[in-house]
Structures are given as structure tokens and as C-alpha cells.
Design goal:
six-stranded antiparallel β-sheet, alpha+beta
Length: about 160
């Protein structure tokens, strides 16, 4: 049995402790959650030690053909532009084709209730993005999706 991972930053450890539920850290600077419908979330301390980041992994676009992926990216860039004018959230696609919603806030003063309210807002927005992306008509066939290891979790 592996020993429990402890946060390497006292402020991040205070945030984890303030949540009032047992959490297992993935690394000394992050933990992972999975919400209803299999929506995965990563919470991490930014390398600057001042901000906490939440990544809501919304969708796996890798199985889509090039044109559909370009349309997805265009849609996300428009959403990203709109989001930047409102609050500190960004929408992106990583090198594996995974779509994520990313938010960050200053660690100082972020505890329990304020963190949970922020996390809830991002998870709900992530669900909306997932719903939007699931409406694309050109879906890969079920065999392609089943062959993708992330397919079952992100769709």
C-alpha cells in the first residue's frame, strides 16, 4: 500500500483540509475528482504557488475527422473569447485532442465554501460545453469510440 501523498504547500493543504471530505492527492500539488456523468476534474496548485487551477475535462475530440475537429476548435475559440471578457476561464484542447475548461483563482482566501461554489460553476459550464460538443452530427462510429481508452469517460 502506498503512503498518502501530502501537499507540499501549506496554503494548498489548508484548502484541501477545508473541504471537509477525505481527498487523496494525485501529486503533492493536485487532486482529481469525477462528477456525475463521468466528468473528470483536476484541481492543482499553479507553479507560481499563488493560484489554484481547475481543469474540467469536457470532451474527447480526437476520434473526429479533421473538418469536424476544425469546427469544434473554431466554436471553442469563440466561446473562449467570450469567456475571457467575463472571468478567468479558458477553453482549450490538449495534444491528445481532449477538450477542457480551465479556471484559476488566487489561492489566498480560497477555502471551503468559496472553492466549492467556484468548482460548481466550472463543472456546470463543463457540462454545457460537453452537451454542445455532443450535438455535432458527424460522430465517429461506435467501434472507433470504443477503441479510444478515454472515449467511455469523456462522452
Amino acid at each position: 500500500m502506498k503512503p498518502a501523498i501530502l501537499a507540499d504547500h501549506p496554503g494548498f493543504q489548508r484548502l484541501v483540509d477545508s473541504l471537509g471530505c477525505p481527498l487523496v492527492l494525485s501529486t503533492p500539488r493536485s487532486f482529481d475528482l469525477v462528477f456525475e456523468g463521468g466528468l473528470p476534474v483536476t484541481v492543482s496548485l499553479h507553479p507560481n504557488d499563488l493560484e489554484v487551477a481547475i481543469d474540467v475535462w469536457c470532451y474527447d475530440a480526437a476520434p473526429h475527422k479533421a473538418q469536424v475537429r476544425r469546427n469544434i476548435v473554431k466554436s471553442l475559440l469563440m466561446l473562449n473569447h467570450a469567456a475571457l471578457t467575463e472571468q478567468a476561464v479558458r477553453i482549450g484542447m490538449d495534444s491528445r485532442g481532449l477538450i477542457l475548461l480551465h479556471g484559476s483563482q488566487v489561492l489566498e482566501g480560497l477555502q471551503g465554501t468559496s472553492f466549492l461554489n467556484w468548482l460548481t460553476q466550472l463543472v456546470e459550464q463543463g457540462r454545457r460545453i460537453r452537451t454542445l460538443l455532443n450535438t455535432y452530427e458527424e460522430e465517429p462510429d461506435s467501434q472507433t469510440r470504443a477503441a479510444h481508452p478515454r472515449g467511455a469517460l469523456l462522452h
